[in-house]
Design goal:
Blueprint: E1 4-10, H1 18-29, E2 33-34, E3 37-43, H2 46-51, H3 75-87, E4 97-104, E5 109-115, H4 119-132, E6 136-139, E7 155-162, H5 171-192, E8 201-211, E9 223-225, E10 242-246, E11 251-253, E12 260-263, E13 277-286, H6 289-296
Parallel strand pairs: 1-3, 1-4, 4-7, 5-6, 6-8
Antiparallel strand pairs: 2-3, 5-7, 8-13, 9-10, 10-11, 12-13
Length: about 300
């Protein structure tokens, strides 16, 4: 493993301001290059950050499916192309790894989001889970949710931290990002020099689908998340337990698989995507040598 560049993206959503602040603090206090690994920092959506909104025309974190979006143009589609042209693997400043920093209004704690089952991603996620004990949300097989930023790089993960309100600075949230950014290169360096090994198992929560709020025929929300379900991310829900509370005070009960753990419960930004929460199922994946081999070949 020679000199590597890792792209750290903050401000992919303009109203998620804590990652942007964390990056500014990191750059003041730390070296950009350490252990022969150089960080490249970029604000994903600077215009949205300036306006304090999630996006201008389109959700930037859904704009990286270039085949699907062929011929489309607006601020975010153009921004996605620019980011890949500047930092993609075939660019003048190629980065093999992309880390996309996000916050959520849901009670997710600090977690990792993976998209699909790439060996390099598994390796990096295993390193971070082993170091910090972070839960992993493995998002796959959802045709309505594609084109994520990190998928445009050979290896990439989302670091998701919450809960925190949009456009609200929280020093505790900032500090969680700083710890991960600071330790990431050390963990990679240890793996490179055979100072640590991957854990035997990787525990992930695999995406099973999403559920919308109860809605009226005109599309207006007709029910809210039940008080007993609020802040219960990563917690199993059993058949017959409360899920929603409609406007008349009637409880709508969960009637599905008892092995399901909801995540992103009540995430504010997902209302427009018709998502009240996503369902996941826990899976244990055994580490493989090819994870490390492929990762160290970046």
């Amino acid at each position: 493993m020679t000199l590597n560049k890792i792209l750290i993206v903050s401000g992919t959503h303009g109203n998620e301001i804590n990652p942007v602040w964390a990056v500014k603090q990191f750059c003041k206090q730390n070296n950009i290059t350490k252990n022969n690994i150089e960080y490249k920092f970029i604000i994903g959506n600077p215009l949205a950050c300036k306006k304090g909104v999630r996006y201008i025309n389109s959700d930037l974190n859904r704009c990286f499916d270039f085949k699907k979006n062929l011929g489309k143009t607006n601020y975010e589609f153009d921004r996605a192309k620019l980011l890949v042209e500047k930092f993609g693997i075939r660019s003048s400043e190629p980065c093999a790894i992309a880390i996309d920093l996000h916050t959520t209004t849901a009670n997710m704690g600090t977690s990792i989001v993976m998209y699909g089952r790439r060996n390099k991603d598994f390796c990096l996620a295993a390193l971070l889970q082993n170091k910090f004990g972070l839960p992993i949300y493995l998002h796959e097989n959802d045709n309505n949710q594609k084109g994520f930023l990190v998928e445009a790089w050979p290896c990439g993960l989302v670091i998701e931290v919450g809960s925190v309100a949009q456009n609200f600075y929280d020093p505790n949230i900032v500090n969680r990002f700083l710890v991960i950014i600071n330790d990431l290169r050390d963990e990679i360096n240890k793996l490179k020099n055979n100072l640590i090994k991957l854990p035997k198992e990787l525990i992930v929560h695999v995406h099973q689908g999403s559920v919308d709020y109860p809605r009226e025929k005109n599309g207006c929300i007709n029910g809210i998340i039940h008080p007993e379900r609020i802040n219960q991310d990563w917690v199993h829900i059993k058949k017959g337990e409360p899920l929603f509370l409609d406007k008349n005070g009637n409880t709508i009960f969960y009637n599905g698989d008892s092995n399901i753990c909801p995540v992103f419960i009540g995430e504010v930004a997902y209302q427009e995507k018709n998502i009240a929460m996503s369902y996941t199922k826990k899976e244990v994946i055994f580490s493989a040598e090819e994870w490390v081999t492929e990762f160290l070949s970046l």
